[in-house]
Amino acid sequence: QITTLINHKDKPKRSDKTLQAIQRVGQAVNLAVGRFVTVGEAIANENHELKEEMSVACIEARRAGETIAQLTDVASLDHPESDSHITIFTDKTGVVKAARLLLSSVTKVLVLADRIVIKQIITSRNKVLATMDQLEKVSSFQEFVQIFSQFGNEMVEFAHLTGDRQNDLKDEKKKARMAASRAVLEKCTMMLLTASKTCLRHPDCESARINKDGVFHRMRLALEQVIEIVTDSRPNGENEMAPISIYSGIKEFKNKVEGLRENLYFLSKENLSTMLEVILEHTEDFTDSAYTSHEHREHILELSKQAKMELEQLVSVWMQAQNQKTKDLMEDLEVAILKMCQCMNDLKRELHSAATSLAADLLKYHTDHMVLKALKITGVEGNLEAVAEYTCKLSEQKEQLVEMCRLLRHVSGTEPLEITCIHAEDTFQVTGPQIISAAETLALHPSSKIAKENLEVFCEAWESQLSDMSLLLREINDVFEGRRGEKRVYLSLPRPGKHNANLKALKPVKLDTEEQAKIAKLGLELHLLTSDVDSETEKWEDQENEIVQHGQGMSSMAYSMYLFTRGEGLLKTTQDLFHQAEIFATEGTKLASALHALSDQVHDDKPLLLLEAEKLISMCKQLQITAKASAQGKSATFTKVDACILKTRNVMTLLCQLLPLCCKLLRKNKMGNGCLKPAPPWKEDRIRTGTNARTPERRVDTFGIKSLENHVTNMTFLESK
After folding, report:
1. 634-668 vs 546-565: helix axis angle to the nearest 10?
2. How many CB atoms lie within 10 A of CB 507?
3. What is the pLDDT of residues 66-96, one digit of tens each?
4. Candidates 3.40.50.1100, 2.40.160.120, 1.20.120.230, 3.40.50.1360; correct CATH number of 1-76+89-113?
5. Which of 444, 465, 350 is nearest to 397 (CA)?
6. Class in CATH terms, 122-231
7. CA distance readout (Å), 470 to 458, 484, 568
8. What is the pTM of this model?
9. Got the DSSP string for 660-710?
10. pLDDT digit string, tens, across residues 97-142
């Protein structure tokens, strides 16, 4: 809007239409600034330490918005230049200055708000740590139940805050690290519950204590890593030492080699030799591994030797070309560059084959979980000797899987996938010994139901990680074969439409960058409408009302579709989007039924309500027809995507009108003890966005919250028994 104002052409003739358009834009900017500043002022009132800075920034923004509105107040002036009133036509620099002040002050507000969000996450983490300290020291079951209930609520809050932050992160590497840390917290929350209960039931059991201590230690490390990511810092000011993968080393080496075409002097031959030495040193992880096949080992060694020879030849021609830049020498240099790069590509392919074939074999071999099953059986039997035998086998399995993760990291192809491999390696390293200590505890107390439950939880974590490895292996192969870009599906999140019987075996399609740009405006409109719907539903006192719940569900799905237009969120392919549109339309039809039911109970505006309900049914049917229609080819698919989002936007626009109407009718008829409630404070709003059980695909992927609540409920029941 501001760019439109500044770039408008100063034509001698100004039509009424032009004048009105300029005034509308100026007013729109001022109104938008007013809404923005209102939120900023609310934040300032709730955070006294930043109140002064935030208030100053808000005042500056408001002043700039009002200045723009005044300078664009031209629609009522027949000859604005002859009037004493200063306008955009007489003082364009004034608009430019106001725009600069506005952008500067808005940026200040955003930065201050971000600092507050970071502070909220740190405060939430500190509460979790304090409660964990209490949990670690409790000695009675009753006290543990009370404190764990508090801990569960605090973890839910932390999950919402960090989930929002994860989605806000632009750096894919940080996003992957945050996802890994939150996955640890998700699994460890359940482990902490059962490990602590086992320790309380068997206080003199050393293996139970070791088991519990391991869980607490891992949770603290994960909490610390979340804060490192959020604050972009490391403890004691140390720099993060990311392990170097062979893939990234080869990529950098090839870039340097190919750079010789443009500049023969930009690096030294020693520099290039050192880079190759580092790469070949890392290949020893493959050649020294006991799990690499003899054939792969031989090929890797041959290619390593060839790479050294190709580099010697390249350096020789390169040095000659520096002294004498003849046509023949430059052609020889080009051949040497091509041969060097081809050799590195062959080495990369061989390493990828070695790592992925090992991973596929291991995952297939361990898919039956025979060792875990044997540990559970021998533990219940109290057979310590057999448990010891199977723990040795589990340790061997752990070493195999850890080695597999290390090799996969080298060939993962992207930084986020590298981080996922490191996370998987850590998970196997830590979970293996924890299963062993849990099995030993059960063998010592074979009749203990809680010890049996504890072993089950740790075994489930192991099985879950193996399952994730299969998905990770598929991702790595996709990247290698060029089927996937840098973005990745976070393995801990469910895929919508995964088990849908209506999905045909069509090749999944993703929007490219150009298509995303075309559809961005429509997506943004959808985003704004979801905010409006959320705002309306929050005003209802009765959150269990059927109309509210359908509205919230539709808003959540529309938000997922908005994220799709940005190449983000859980809808990864156009097929996912079409499936989501079908479900959205079904939810809209259910809302229409609820509106019909309401019309039978009200007297005023009944015809209007029925008319709107019929309009909603018609729109939803059109959307369903569009979503189910076949589309062959890239152009047709994009047209279908555009149509689905456009029709979803139209339904959401109607929903924004329906919700306040229904609320007004209910209030008039005094049904439900009044349906309005005061707007929630700003800081609660971020937490509330993900708490509705009907909206699992919202920005926050709360980890294990329902199962956590169930565990707390079960414990309360046990205590009463």
Report:
1. 150
2. 6
3. 888 888 786 545 444 444 555 655 566 777 8
4. 1.20.120.230
5. 465
6. mainly alpha
7. 19, 16, 23
8. 0.63
9. HHHHHHHHHTT-SS--B-PPPPHHHHHHHTT--TT-TTSS----SHHHHHH
10. 888 888 999 999 999 988 988 999 999 999 999 999 999 999 888 8
